[in-house]
Design brief:
- By secondary structure, this protein is mostly helical.
- It has helices at 2-12, 21-32, 36-41, 49-62, 72-92, 96-120, 124-133, 135-139, 146-187; strands at residues 197-199, 206-208.
- Helix 5 crosses helix 6 and helix 5 runs parallel beside helix 9.
Length: 213
């Protein structure tokens, strides 16, 4: 099962930044000045008109193929994704509770797949393919039993949490890569293109020669 999860992570690693929830939120903030992260956490009655419009725009961009208002389940999935991203940030800083939450996310992903296997039996692979294409269409399929619909919803929510920690970890790695590249650039000699370490004569402080000799 963990092999399937890791394969899922690799297959989704190439999603463009603008298509991810955080990319959509960043675009809306640039366009409107509204912080969707803050607005979506407020109760509906406490949002300003501009904040509510931004939240609706955010959810509609997440699900552009839908021709009806976003459901409570869809909004909950978005919230699960956001909270999972925060979980990974906690893992990065060494918070014990965050690590426990991360372990629980992985366990729920396994449990969700097992529930789908139990609910759909021999049809599970076909149904999983449908979920990958458009999970909400499957949720609204009138031919599903109550148990099958519950299994699909459980999987969607578990996958949202897995997406959250996955993309947060990928973003963290990219940020570290950019930081390392920036540090190397700052220490590289402008003319020779190499790193030339040196020591200050006054206090023996290590430095790097970036111009001249």
């Amino acid at each position: 099962m963990f092999e399937a999860i890791e394969q899922y992570i690799r297959e989704n690693a190439a999603m463009t930044e603008s298509a991810r929830p955080e990319g959509i939120r960043a675009a809306i903030k640039e366009e409107t000045g509204v912080n969707v992260d803050s607005a979506i956490k407020k109760e509906y009655s406490k949002r300003t008109q501009q904040e509510q419009a931004a939240v609706e725009d955010y959810l509609n961009r997440l699900y552009p193929e839908k021709e009806h208002p976003v459901s409570e389940d869809e909004a909950e999935v978005t919230d699960i994704y956001d909270r999972a991203r925060l979980t990974w940030e906690g893992v990065e800083t060494g918070e014990p509770e965050a690590q426990a939450d991360f372990d629980a996310i992985r366990s729920r992903m396994i449990e969700a797949y097992e529930l789908c296997e139990q609910a759909f039996g021999t049809e599970v692979e076909m149904r999983m393919a449908e979920m990958q294409e458009n999970p909400w269409d499957l949720v609204n399929d009138p031919s599903l039993t109550v148990d099958q619909k519950d299994a699909v919803l459980h999987y969607i929510k578990a996958k949202a949490a897995m997406d959250g920690v996955t993309y947060a970890s990928l973003d963290a790695m990219e940020n570290k890569r950019e930081e390392i590249a920036k540090n190397v650039e700052q220490r590289t000699h402008k003319d020779y293109g190499t790193i030339q370490p040196a020591t200050m004569k006054v206090d023996d402080k290590p430095v790097y020669i970036v111009k001249g000799m």
